[in-house]
Amino acid sequence: MTIDAIKERDYAVAMPEYDYAFWNAVKRKPHNAKELQKGSAKEGRYLPLQANSKMTAALKKESVFRSLATIAYMREPSGIVLAKHCAAESCWTYEDGMYTFGQNEGEFTDYNIKAHKLGTLLKYDEAFMVDVGLNMENHLIDNIAKSFGAMEDAAYVNGKGDIQPTGILHNTRGAQVGTTTAALTYEDVVKLYFSVKPEYRKRGVWMMNDETAYYLRTIKDEGGNYIWNHANDTILGKRVYICNDMPSIGPGNKPIAFGDFSYYWIIIRDEVTVKVLSELYYNDGQIGYIAREYLDAKLIRPEAIKVIQMS
Fold this sequence. Notes:
alpha+beta, phage-related protein like fold, globular
């Protein structure tokens, strides 16, 4: 699909006529097929602009990473992202003076962005669909977001970059190791914190699973103070985010990550769309809905997030 075609489709799905046609089609009610066709995506899938905004909000609620990462949009069929690996350079000068910047031109790394496809299938009894008390739009969006949110976070942690995005724990393209230990202690957590450069610590957060969080809640420093602030769920003043796709404490695992997760980029290639399977499950008295999205994700600055490596 060309850029002009994408723009035309984006305009079409913002119209109330399209919204009306789409949701009537979802409920297998009479609808304007010509109007619906204006918003056709790959393989005859659709989603109105208003519903897409709700879907984006629902995904952010369900996915830990979507609330921390940088979300970028790349609608072209393929592309490369250039990431700058140096800080901006600033200097003072007189009112009428010339700036005297250095020769630091920065380093750029090319990242090939793919279009990994994630799909989910929902089936409902036709009798359930005609329930007048059901807000089908909210129900469908919430269920898709829950399924996609869980699958996305699993990939954002452990994805290999083949048919999934590249996760933060990838051995070569993920977060750097900040410290290595055989038994997790208070000192190890502090070492991890200070292994991250100050520019990344400023917006740094912790990520771990429930089991690791429970263990850290019991750790005390030499003065008998808990490392975990139970009043606001922070460690060393930085908020803890729970993602149960993170591994537990154990040999060879990386149970804790700390750093600035805004350097993890989620690149949306095509937003969530829905196709109604009105005939496939007809004999079962059911209607199927298959939702799909195309995206990729990469940590574009590995030093921004550090992990503890268990030996």
